[in-house]
What we know:
By secondary structure, chain A is mainly α. Chain A has helices spanning 2-7, 10-29, 33-39, 47-75, 79-82, 97-108, 113-144, 150-160, 169-178, 186-193, 196-206, 211-219, 224-235, 237-252, 268-276, 283-312.
Amino acid sequence: MKKEKVKLTKNQKKIRRIARQAARKEKKLHHSAFSRLITKGRSNRSIAGSVALLLFLFVLSLLMLFPVVFMVSNAFKPINELFIFPPRLFVIQPTLDNFYDLIELLADSLVPFSRYLFNTLLIVLTGSVGHILLSCMAAFPLAKFRFPGCKTINSIVLMSLMFSTAVTAVPNYVMMSYFHLVDTYWAVILPAFSMSLGLFLMKNFMEQVPTALIDAASIDGASYFGMLWRVVMPAVKPAWITLFIVSFQSLWGATGGNFIYTENLKPLPAMLNQLTGSGVARTGVVAATSLLMFIVPVVLFMISQSNVLETMATSGIKE
Amino acid sequence: MQKTCPARAETRFGYGVKQAKKYRQLYWMMAPFMLCFAVFTIVPVLVSIFFSFTRFNVLQPPVFIGLDNYARLFLDDPIFLKAVKNTLLLAVITGPFGYIFSFLMAWMLCELPPKLRAFLTVVFYAPSISGNAYVIFTQLFSGDAYGFINSRLLNLGLISEPILWLRDEKYMMLIVILVSLWMSLGVGFLSFIAGLQGVEKAQYEAAEVDGVKNRWQELWYITLPNMIPQLLFGAVMSVTNSLAVADVTVALNGFPSTNYATHTIINHLNDYGIIRLEMGYACAIAVLLFFLMLFINKAVQRMLGKVGT
Lengths: 319, 309
């Protein structure tokens, strides 16, 4: 045994050492499901690093969650807990009182709650559906054909992503009043039709649809509308779900602000803002309404997450 | 072109017209969107530029006054300059930090098993989804002893009297930055997550063989170069959002905020456009903001072109 060891050349020793190390690493890697999970079976990932990252992520997610948890728990706090000192993060005796109060308050309002809800739903649904249809129709030519002007349109759309709508707020009002659209639903709905983010996402996603499919449809004698409707639209389902989510999010919170004055036409958030402005006595009701306003888009996103992410994979800006 | 194909005796323009005729239907398809887009985005920008050279109060026809509005902005309106300063300060901090933060979060999330990842994605994305969830911060940072933060600090004996977090100039900006960061994981964040999942596994395996030693090298040499399109998209979203902070300051600090400590350009724009009805002046502000946003976006894109080299 001893003899053998002496006989080994330096090189051989080195090779053995490396082999042993590799074996140990292999063993370590596939040792437990846990370590495989965090290193993804790749040897160049240290377990310590992964654990540190996970811990960091955990702490940060607690920080991010904190306000949300506070909001949710506030909605279920009875009045004595809302004003307890020191305020508590978690509710001790959860109750639905705030929601009952909200319902009671809404039953008494001059314009019934259902009207506000109807206004919001009308604005959200018309706006989103119109946005999806219009941007599909505009995205298809931009994604799949090279016609005069397509480059210009693409760069204008890309440019319009770079400034927020607040910049155009003033002339928008002037335009609306010129078209006599102030104080109608359309003042909120029409600008939502042409959100450039939707067109951008849809166009990028449509670029993935195999050109062969479209050519085949073209040989079968389909018109451009036929191609879009029968071939492309079914293939880009994730994208229109995403567009729905995006425009839902922006319209759900729309108060109608400067455009809608008639109480009958105001959407839900406008009414909830009035509640919020009504002072300390309504703290519980406000907590309940904020939770309701918060939960709807979050749930929608949860349901459609995989579709949204699939669309976002193509969201990049190519140069 | 004419030399290489003499058979086609038409000019480039003529060719273009012919192509346009061929694709006539496509233009009709794009028409509805483009009409809306033109009326509510392109024309307003042009109209803004026009109004910015006029005095205009909606009721009377605009009066041309040349560059007076711009001169007034820079020479005669200290509050505007303060708004510019605040906006840039906010953008410089929340823009890059929010951007890097959302990338890092996305990157770490992608290490997790799918179920957990999906859950945490919702958790991180939720603050920016929901219109005005940030209102909750008015309770967390409430100025009386019943505010969550104040009560904790009082109980710990760190402060002897409640701090007016949202009304005291010393803290206002800090809180707005904090809240903006909380909300910074938006569409860009989703784009990052999706982009990260799209990087081919084979590339990582190849890199492992080629001697990439740790995750940081992997990030720099493999992940980032693969994600440049998403990085650019995220940057556009992040720059635009960080320059457009306005609702948060109104909800947290009121309007106008104490001594204009968190007054942003858009707050100033709304002040003149909606309250004082000096539309010409408001448009001058909007035009400046418009060019500021475009300029910063272009600069950031140029910078990101160098990633992974």
